[in-house]
Amino acid sequence: MEKELKSKGLLIVLSGPSGAGKGTVCASLRKCLPELVYSVSATTRQPREGERDGVNYFFQTKEEFERMIHQGELLEWARFVDNYYGTPRGFVEEQLHNGKDVLLEIEVQGAKQVKERFPQGVFIFLLPPSMKELRNRLKERGTETDEVLWERLQAAREELAQIHNYDYVVVNDQVDAACDRIRSILMAEHLKRERLFQDQPDWLEGL
Q1: Residue 99 assigned to a binding site
Q2: Record-annotated residues binding ATP (predicted)?
């Protein structure tokens, strides 16, 4: 039986400032790429309206989260605006081993940790069309006080300073267009020579 030439699963890291539309873009990607595995992050922040535990996030107490840190159960973790965020590592490693593409929606601090452990990952930074639009999106949420809004805008400027750590930049001017750009990135990454042949170096000998 001929061996199919295919690349292993991709670890895709999507970051961007709060209000860039990461959650909306990820939800759209899951619809158009049903085979894509979405890694659910753990967090200590309060759920927003419509969010469900185990679907959008694993909502945990500060004590529960700190136990996971100490026991090495997180691929990455970060503290952002007085809340913890992190990625349970066991699930991610299992999916990659099984050849699945895994999408992580995480903050820039966490992305830096992941890149140290998985430099072969695909790192994408999602941008809003402008800082003015970012501010408008945050205000329209109606969930942040003026103080928290100011903190998130300051954090956004700090996150933008880390954009050089990413492989790709995608502007989220329209959700469908942003998703199309990300799909093109993933297609190209799967076709890279080093990904195709790294685990099947003898494949060409059968031609």
Answers
A1: no
A2: 16-23
Binding residue per annotation — 18? yes
C-alpha distances in angstroms, 162 versus 24, 112, 170, 198? 22, 9, 15, 29
- The model's pTM is 0.78
131-141 and 146-160 helices cross at what angle (nearest 10)? 140
Query: How far is it, in rounded angstroms, from Cα 148 to Cα 141?
Result: 12
Residue 23, marked binder: yes
Q: Is 41 labelled as part of a ligand binding site?
A: no
19 is in an annotated binding site: yes
Is the CB of residue 163 less than 8 Å from the CB of residue 169?
Answer: yes
CATH class of 11-199: alpha beta
C-alpha 54 chain-centroid distance: 16
Is 155 a known ligand-binding residue? no
User: Is 15 annotated for ligand binding?
Assistant: no
Q: What order do you get walking across the sheet with 74-80 strand by strand?
A: 57-59, 41-43, 83-88, 74-80
